[in-house]
Fold these 2 entries.
Entry 1:
Amino acid sequence: MCGIAGYIGERNAPEILFDMLKRLEYRGYDSAGVAYFAHGRILVSKDRGKVNDIRKNLNLGRESKLGIAHTRWATHGEPSRENSHPHSDCNSQFTIAHNGIIENYKELREGLIERKHRFLSETDTEVIPHLIEEFYSGNFESAFVKAVKKLRGSFAIVAISKSNPDMILLARKESPLIIGLGDGENFIASDTPAVLPETRRIIILDDLEYGIVKKNSVTIKDLETGDEIKKEIREIEWDIEEAEKEGYEHFMLKEIFEEPNAVRNALNGINKTEEIAGKLKNFNRIYFVACGTASYAALVAKYLLERFGIPSEAIVGSEFRYSTVNSLGSDCAVIAISQSGETADTIASVKEARKKLAYVTSVVNVVGSSLTRISDDVIYTYSGPEIAVASTKAYLGQLVSLTLLCLSLAREKGNINEQYMNEILDDLHKIPDKIRQVLDNEGEIKKLAEKLKDKKIFFYIGRRLNYPTALEGALKIKEISYVHAEAYPAGELKHGPLALLEEGVPVIAISPNDDLKEKMESNVQEARARNATIIMVGEDGDLRVPVCDPLLSPILYIVPLHLLAYYISTAKGLDPDKPRNLAKSVTVE
Ligand code: G6P
């Protein structure tokens, strides 16, 4: 994620661009910047921080009619002024902003450095203006096209040149880009909400298209052939908030539908997880620490390691910091898990652990967040910004990163055979498509939610790896539907909670096709005998999930439970994005 914007017309470009950035901030918010043409030069102002703070500190007084801007969600390089966009070439002739990931940036960068190009940032993006510079021999458009053709990966790019202050060039592959058509002015943005206050007429750029945007014209061409393409002009009827949610009713629903992508992105971290596993094998004791949803990812990781004979503990931050920490020493490794990287109890746990000389690696979504700065190593999940308070897609990112880490550690210790490891990895790569199949079943889940919406209490039961799935399913209902939900290891039901079961109480039983399936059946029978309403989650359950290796079931089986919680909340007429009394980042004790 990241948001990019462009403006060409008669009004003051930087002011308009910052207004657009503000509406793109939901796509990223760790740094922002603007580049505009004034007095024969391109001026760049950028910094780490939120759009409004940066805007306050910048001098945008100069009159300019052309510019581009960017709000960043860091991927390559931590949030800093140097890594903020826009980026320029050696002579500040070409300036660009980019959203996406350039996969071959390392080799491009090495080649450019050999040709004496000077780089100022750690970003993948900076190769683009230097490539344009390299190919330039008097024609901006042709140099831009040649440069873009060298890129592998995903991109949405806007580019300006100080020799051509009458145009903005843009190109797209797999990252969104639209053009808003004005009267004697045109706007470019990652997404429709940014341009809606200015115009409702938009052109959507498709993959492998590029464009030349002038104040009175827009030309779109095929990146491969250079042929001009006639594009449809769409009239947008959504309001701004609807557009930010890309048509989904809530951010939470949008984020649940982004779960396949969260899995794909976390899978890209495999090299890093292998590197960290190589370090972890040298420690005698491993502790996972986290809060809320992330603490359930921690618990899954503990069960995974146990599966391969490696002992570990999973403890919530608020307990770890005052208790577990007393027993730590330099033979301990702590793995801290957090979406935001800002949760106070998790951060305090890590600080205390470091005082005891423990090694710390963190599994984090927000690049450059506080937790990443106090950890020895970081594994990023790259789930993209999560806006809804209740965590969903970030949980899947955490599960995938931790699964990779645990498998690699098992291999380091010689506790998993290579063939089995490869089979699981193969299956892991199929999980995004399997999640998609669960999401396709949305209609059924919604109907079930309607039936359950007035229930006063819910039970979630699971065993082993899916006990945490039960905890996460129950937490989601509590957070956004305000009903009581209990999560229990299925075998513990008979030691107390069974007394609460009576006719019609929903018991959601997470039952993957593993060696404990029959045991699970027995526990379900105990509840059925009390006339509870049983909802099985499994390959042939009421909430159906595709076949997968039982070790990966926590990643797949939570998806219908996220959807169920969402639809129960909306069926009750609540706003799942903003649950009462809760905050997205809990930065206090
Ligand atoms: C809050 C959020 C939860 C989240 C927890 C931990 O309670 O409402 O959704 O799981 O914090 O947050 P973290 O950013 O550390 O993962």
Note: The pocket of 6-O-phosphono-alpha-D-glucopyranose is lined by residues 291-294, 338-340, 343, 346, 389-391, 582, 584-586 (CB under 6 Å).
Entry 2:
Amino acid sequence: MAPKLILTGFMATGKSAVGRAAAARLGWRLVDSDAELVARAGKPIPAIFAEHGEARFRALEREVIAGLASDPNRCPQCGAPRPAVISTGGGALVDERNYAALKRAGLIICLSARPEVIAARVRRSPHARPKLLEGGKPLEVRIAELMEERRAAYARADFNVDTSDLSVVESAERVLAIFARRGRSAHRCAPSA
Ligand code: S3P
């Protein structure tokens, strides 16, 4: 198993925050696929959706994930693939090619949360999420609908952690416990920069 810990799952389930906490505990770098995509596009996600459409956003997302998943960097000491925590955007796993690339790269842990918890987090969040504005529906209705559409895609992850009633630190502990049991490779060198 390549030493990547991959966090995916619906919007506002804690992927970035839990990814940061898990990466800090492991002493590994955190790579956020949305942040990479925004840097590459030179504009924020809502602008990509508005100016170029979702298809362009998904094409960029595929490029970024393919790059992250096939990270050619090797540990200079032992030659093993460099470890990392990767957090993806909420729709990434829906794409077959993303799923296949991530599956080859490491252990996929899906974060989930109850729809009402997601709605509360989205309302508190400063990030605009174009997928939740589609159809002009009430937030809870749109979340439930999209979650149902993506149920099968998320079910392909290796593990699921429901973060509804957990703090970021508790969620990261669950993730790390799973990873320690199932994902950790034989990589024994010092943390990568
Ligand atoms: C999306 C989730 C977002 C971002 C984009 C599309 C989705 O990421 O990639 O707005 O389709 O679920 P977060 O899950 O980090 O909000």
Note: The domain at 4-181 is CATH 3.40.50.300 (Rossmann fold).
